[in-house]
Design goal:
439 residues; alpha/beta; Pyrimidine Nucleoside Phosphorylase, Chain A, domain 2; Aldehyde Oxidoreductase, domain 3; four-stranded mixed sheet; four-stranded antiparallel sheet; 17 helices; 15% strand; globular
């Protein structure tokens, strides 16, 4: 492209006409938009053209690279050992990060985890962590490295210097109906993860009624796009597609999910949550070179939970990030919601289907989430949802318990949850939690 003067309008037109963009054209757009030289109205046109016409593997990798280099890339060469992270595409009750990071760090693999906040019906790891009194996710780069060196893991938020282009682009995608674009999702996820200084990445791609990718075929397309982009940067990667047609575990809401995570770390049997967690942790341990296979990694993960060492590691990182360890050791000390209400089954039958999106939105309505980035979260609000698809529910049993300070929302939420459930008189097959593993 030497000697060619690039023009924003011509690049937008090229993508509109389904042509492939060159490396220089993509970098020109991202760099100039990040610097404020391309206005939102023009970049919105580019986002929509990309949403409608897609990108090739090479274009997507170039987009990711341009976004990555818009800010600081963390160097972790001074920290010995492999650095492996996990990314989930989001869901309801998805608290695996809080459990698997201490497991993997205990296994001897560094976990430099930069997480996000919840928006809409899906929860965010940062909001869960910040429900722990005093816990700081806004650590400096120096603190970030120091915490990893001390305990093999860190649970941090994205700083303003890490992939600033993504922050600008995501805000625009959110208001231009282009969030669901596979190349744009890939660029957003991978640029942030690559900026962490990782060697390997395990992807948890959710599919089902509580996921952004409702259909398995769409989840596979996203998984392959993420994997191909990771490969373009010579990163070891494993994609695991998991079920999100019902809440993962039983607790939904920030502090409630911390409670369930702590209980899991202490060895409580929570079958669905721990099946997914051990598989993801096992894959991370394998990528980190501490196991010869994913299955061996799963066995190591299970043993670490039984030993109590993962719980000790969690206490260690809470202390290092200024959280109140006494609250974690005595969960009952946490403030209680003003209102607690049980939802009782009105009939007997097998749970056939859960509209998991509605369960997530019910938790949000109680105060556990945000519809806009400015909304204030109530950390103790949420739902304990008891049954799993395939369970027989008897009339009079407690289906769920809701916790909130918002009295006026209670009746509406009860109705919403009841409508989200479908029953059958016949036995129902339980859902397969791990749909597929992509290498």
């Amino acid at each position: 492209m030497n000697g060619v003067i690039l023009n924003t309008i011509e690049i937008i037109k090229k993508k509109r006409e389904k042509e492939k963009l060159s490396v220089d054209e993509i970098k020109f757009l991202i760099n100039n938009y990040a610097k404020g030289k391309i206005p939102d109205y023009q970049f919105s046109a580019f986002l929509m053209a990309t949403y409608l016409n897609g990108m090739s593997v090479v274009e997507t990798a170039t987009l990711t690279e341009a976004m990555l280099h818009s800010g600081t890339i963390i160097e972790l060469d001074s920290i010995s050992g492999a650095k492996v992270d996990k990314h989930s595409t989001g869901g309801v009750g998805d608290k695996t990060s809080l459990i698997l990071a201490p497991i993997v760090a205990t296994a001897g693999v560094n976990v430099p985890m930069i997480s996000g906040r919840g928006l809409g019906h899906t929860g965010g790891t940062l909001d869960k962590l910040e429900s722990i009194p005093g816990f700081r996710t806004d650590v400096s780069l120096t603190q970030y490295k120091s915490i990893i060196k001390k305990c093999g893991m860190v649970l941090a938020s994205q700083t303003k210097n890490i992939v600033p282009a993504d922050k600008l682009m995501y805000a625009l995608r959110d208001v231009t109906a282009t969030v669901e674009s596979i190349p744009l999702i890939t660029g957003s996820i991978m640029s942030k993860k690559l900026a962490e200084g990782i060697d390997g990445l395990v992807l948890d791609i959710k599919t089902g009624s509580g996921a952004f990718m409702k259909e398995l075929k769409d989840a596979k397309i996203l998984a392959k796009s993420l994997i191909n982009t990771a490969k373009a940067f010579d990163k070891n990667v494993i994609g695991i597609i998991t079920d999100m047609n019902q809440p993962l575990g039983n607790n939904i809401g920030n502090w409630l999910e911390v409670v369930e995570s702590v209980e899991a770390l202490q060895g409580k049997e929570i079958p669905d949550l721990m099946t997914v967690t051990h598989k993801l942790a096992g894959a991370m341990i394998y990528l980190g070179g501490k196991a010869s296979s994913i299955n061996e990694g799963v066995e190591i993960s299970e043993e670490i939970i039984k030993s109590g060492k993962a719980y000790d590691k969690f206490l260690e990182v809470v202390k290092l990030q200024k959280g109140d360890v006494s609250i974690i050791k005595n969960l009952s000390k946490y403030p209680k919601s003003k209102y607690t209400e049980e939802i009782i089954a009105s009939k007997t039958g097998y749970l056939k289907e859960v509209d998991n999106y509605e369960i997530g939105m019910s938790a949000l309505q109680l105060g556990a989430g945000r519809l806009t980035k400015e909304d204030i979260i109530e950390p103790k609000a949420g739902i304990i949802f008891n049954p799993k698809i395939g369970d027989k529910i008897k009339k009079g049993e407690i289906i769920a318990t809701i916790f909130t300070d918002r009295k006026k929302e209670i009746n509406s939420v009860i109705t919403r949850i009841e409508k989200a459930l479908k029953y059958s008189n016949k036995k129902v097959t339980k859902h397969k939690l791990i749909k597929t593993i992509l290498r």
